[in-house]
Design a protein that fits this description.
mainly alpha; 72% helix; globular; disordered C terminus; Na+/solute_symporter_sf; antiporter activity; membrane
Length: 418
């Protein structure tokens, strides 16, 4: 027990030092935490195994994702959200579809998997991990509207990936029911959003009363866990419900509630700076253990896949670059945000967890899917982390300005000599 407590304390201090390193070098702390997990895990030293955590590891990972999405929702502006919805959908769907096609084609011709299995692998690895990109973007102080686009895109692709993977696995072999799958995705998003918004209004209505009781700082997390559970048990997206809950807590005053009789004379509570500071502290701890656990979960069953994975991930990021150049032109506030969006396509724990499901269900090619996916998760995060610090290099900045169309704007804005 003493060793465990010593390790937890040391881990927290290491995480603090990684945050300081990130501020000085732009090397993301999440990468250092993942590498620490790999070092301690079965892949290298073997001191800690994911199985040592039992069910707690998976539960803590879900809790971290829910809390990160809830806190991200509190930063969303509902007017900006509505304005950026079309842009977000264009970016998310384009990146998602291209990633599926690239990985599926590689799996079919490179790994010699069946067409259905190849498509399944593409879906597993098509999401952008909100638990990875949101902390990085917040640390980089990404400006709006790029921040809103990234938060919504990562949440949306996560839902698309999870829903479509299980739809494919549960459908009979050789049967592809696109209309049914589309209906499932849309209902999951819409109804999850309704649950989250309704939960946010309900919580705002009782918040002032709740604050009269002692020790209620964690009550909001208990409520968001309940909303997540309700949405998930009903077959909808708990992640989107958590995001919508956070958004409703800071935007409810913009809704026409005065037209609803029950709300006309009701005083709603709101989140204050002390609440947000507390949430940030909780997220720091959850993020620390989440990414170390992610590193522990990564397995290297077949190193031969590494070269193929490197090629695939580079192609996906190049395609992502082209999509961002087209979709975000005239929308992004600066070349920095366009660059950051271009390199923000890492996979996370959701992909790692989904990668194990085909093998657990005895599907042909399940072992290949798991091994390949673990490499993609690691390589994509390393590539994102490696590309971010390059922003500070003058040559990269100059090239990025030209690439994203900001050089002409800056020249026009510069004062002309008389």
């Amino acid at each position: 027990m003493a060793e465990i407590l010593f390790g937890i304390g040391l881990l927290v201090f290491l995480s603090l030092s990684f945050t300081a390193i990130f501020k000085r070098t732009l090397v993301p702390d999440v990468l250092l935490l993942i590498l620490l997990g790999i070092l301690l895990g079965p892949a290298v030293l073997g001191w800690v195994k994911p199985e040592d955590f039992g069910k707690i590891g998976g539960v803590m990972s879900t809790i971290a994702l829910v809390v990160i999405l809830f806190e991200s929702g509190t930063t969303l502006d509902i007017d900006l959200l509505a304005k950026m919805l079309k842009t977000t959908l264009s970016l998310a769907v384009s990146t998602f579809a291209c990633t599926v096609l690239i990985i599926a084609a590689t799996a079919y011709w490179g790994l010699h998997l069946e067409a259905r299995t190849s498509f399944l692998l593409g879906l597993i690895l098509s999401s952008i991990s909100p638990a990875v990109v949101i902390p990085i973007a917040k640390s980089l102080k990404m400006r709006e509207p790029a921040m809103t686009v990234l938060i919504l895109e990562s949440g949306l692709t996560d839902v698309l990936s999870i829903v479509m993977v299980f739809s494919i696995m549960e459908s009979p072999a050789g049967v592809f029911q696109a209309p049914k799958m589309l209906g499932t995705v849309l209902s999951s998003l819409v109804f999850a959003g309704v649950i989250g918004m309704a939960g946010g209004l309900a919580w705002a209505a009782v918040l002032n009363t709740v604050r009269q009781f002692p020790n209620t700082s964690f009550a909001v997390f208990a409520w968001v866990f309940i909303l997540y559970g309700i949405a998930d048990m009903m077959g909808f997206s708990g992640a989107i419900a958590a995001l919508a809950f956070g958004a409703s807590m800071v935007n409810y005053h913009r809704l026409p509630l005065h037209n609803v009789k029950i709300f006309q004379q009701h005083e709603f509570g709101s989140l204050n700076s002390a609440d947000m500071e507390f949430y940030h502290e909780v997220i720091f701890l959850l993020k620390t253990f989440f990414f170390v656990y992610l590193g522990l979960s990564i397995k290297f069953d077949n190193p031969m896949y590494l070269l193929i994975v490197l090629g695939v991930v580079v192609v996906v990021y190049l395609v992502r670059l082209g999509i961002v150049m087209k979709v975000m032109r005239g929308v992004s506030p600066g070349w920095e945000e366009s660059y950051e969006l271009s390199v923000m396509a890492p996979k996370g724990l959701a992909a790692a967890v989904l990668a194990s499901v085909p093998l657990e269900r005895g599907m042909a090619g399940g072992e290949v899917i798991r091994s390949f996916s673990y490499f993609v998760v690691l390589v994509s995060i390393v590539l994102t982390a490696g590309l971010i610090p390059l922003m500070r290099r003058p040559a990269v900045g100059q090239a990025a300005r030209r690439l994203y169309g900001f050089e002409e704007t800056e020249l026009e804005a510069a004062p002309q000599p008389e």
